[in-house]
UniProtKB/TrEMBL annotation:
Gene3D superfamilies, per database record: Histone deacetylase domain (3.40.800.20)
Protein's UniProt name: Acetoin utilization protein AcuC
Pfam families, sorted: Hist_deacetyl (PF00850)
Coiled-coil portions: none
InterPro entries: AcuC (IPR003085), HDACs (IPR000286), His_deacetylse_dom (IPR023801), His_deacetylse_dom_sf (IPR037138), Ureohydrolase_dom_sf (IPR023696)
Gene Ontology terms, MF aspect: histone deacetylase activity
Family: Belongs to the histone deacetylase family.
Biological pathway: Ketone degradation; acetoin degradation
Keywords: Acetoin catabolism
Residues in the signal sequence: none
Species this protein is from: Streptomyces noursei
GO terms of biological process kind: acetoin catabolic process; epigenetic regulation of gene expression
Domain of life: Bacteria
Length: 391
């Protein structure tokens, strides 16, 4: 089975639709899948699998019964949405079929977890997932069910003893952190824009895990404006050492594309090329430190034509062991499809024309006056000693 990779996909995930004007436009998922197909990744490199929706017993691994009941009610009658559960809000308006669409996305991540844990696939991708803000008892930040936390909970249920979660979305992975706050079996690492300037205003380096799980939550709070070199420097100054020390049996990663400089909702300045480099690093780290098991999820990303489809097609191609040359031209048929669906012009190449590089934290030292280095040091000081590492 070695080398096999699955892409979790059911076209009905595009029913996760908060309606016109909402930034989380499901066209980003459809356009990503069409680009995957244009590169023929579904013919060989990736086996496309549609998993069943997450059932109640699975949802209950993370979510409270009363919350799931509230989602079901809002799904059947959107006018009855209860804002006490975060439903019917500006971020999470209720829509008909909300429960079904959310459970289907969660099911794809849970299915990915099952396939990878059982050895049916080495890697599995669900770019419709990564809904990392959903809390055990409430919706938040465009997220209803937390498929990332559910996948991890399912891995634990299947017998995993150490699972690592790495979240490179521009927003803090607060829901996943909350779900496993007191669970030392799950290491959550989130790199994000500083909570002072961005939703959900958490993810401070001092948030390091609950009692009995000290050091199991890791937060890197990056200054607004951080670009490729700083973002990759921070990733490499924190993630590889922690994974080497923690020795996960599975690596779950969340690849929100909203770190991009074109993203309308946040303030980092990362390019597609650095996003691709981070995906490659996650893949390599899964082989190096996580027994080859890798589950890669999507996440945020609101430049729905220019950024998201290319970013996640690179991710899927990397998982399928057929990476796409960034200099390649975007297939013409896909560009027509983009125009047909959005009346926007699609990008021409699979690159932003950047060549990602970073200076390694270990050699050359750090600059105590540099805000990026201060952020990295704050994180290392907060958690590295808990893992027997020097800050
Ligand atoms: Zn985000
Ligand atoms: Zn691989």
């Amino acid at each position: 089975m070695s080398g096999r990779a699955q892409l979790m996909w059911d076209e009905a995930v595009t029913g996760y639709d908060f309606g016109p004007g909402h930034p989380m436009d499901p066209v980003r998922l459809a356009l990503t899948m069409r680009l995957v197909e244009a590169y023929e990744l579904h013919r060989g490199p990736l086996e496309v699998v549609a998993a069943k929706p997450a059932g109640d017993s699975t949802l209950r691994l993370v979510h409270r019964e009363d919350y799931v009941a509230a989602v079901r009610r809002a799904s059947a009658d959107p006018a009855s949405a209860d804002v006490a559960y975060g439903l019917g809000t500006e971020d999470d308006p209720a829509f008909a079929g909300m429960h079904e669409a959310s459970a289907l996305i969660a099911g794809q991540s849970v299915g990915a977890a099952e396939a990878v844990w059982r050895g049916e696939a080495e890697h599995a991708v669900n770019f419709a997932g990564g809904l990392h803000h959903a809390m055990p008892g409430g919706a938040s930040g465009f997220c209803i069910y937390n498929d990332a936390a559910l996948a991890i909970a399912r891995l634990l249920e299947l017998g995993a003893e150490r699972v690592a979660y790495v979240d490179v979305d521009v927003h803090h992975g607060d829901g996943v952190q909350a779900a496993f706050w007191e669970d030392p079996r799950v290491l959550t690492i989130s790199l994000h824009e500083h909570p002072r300037t961005l939703f959900p205003q958490t993810g401070w380096p001092e948030e390091t895990g609950g009692e009995g799980a000290e050091g199991s939550a890791v937060n890197v709070a990056l200054p607004a404006g951080t670009g490729d070199a700083g973002w990759l420097r921070a990733f490499h100054a924190v993630v590889p050492e922690l994974l080497a020390a923690f020795r996960p049996q599975v690596l779950v990663t969340q690849h929100g594309a909203d770190t991009h400089f074109e993203d309308p909702l946040a303030h980092l300045a990362v390019s597609l090329d650095a996003q691709r480099a981070a995906a490659e690093s996650c893949h390599a780290l899964a082989h190096e430190h996580a027994e080859d098991r890798w589950i890669a999820l999507g996440g945020g990303g609101y430049a729905v034509v220019d950024v998201v489809p290319r970013s996640w097609t690179h991710l899927a191609a990397i998982a399928g062991h057929r990476p796409i040359d960034p200099t390649s031209s975007v297939p013409e048929a896909w560009r027509h499809e983009v125009f047909r669906r959005t009346r926007q012009l699609a990008p021409l190449r699979m690159t932003d024309g950047r060549t990602p590089y970073w200076r390694d934290f270990a050699d050359g030292g750090y600059d105590p006056a540099d805000r990026l280095d201060q952020a990295v040091l704050a994180t290392r000081r907060a958690v590295f000693p808990s893992h027997g590492l020097l800050p």
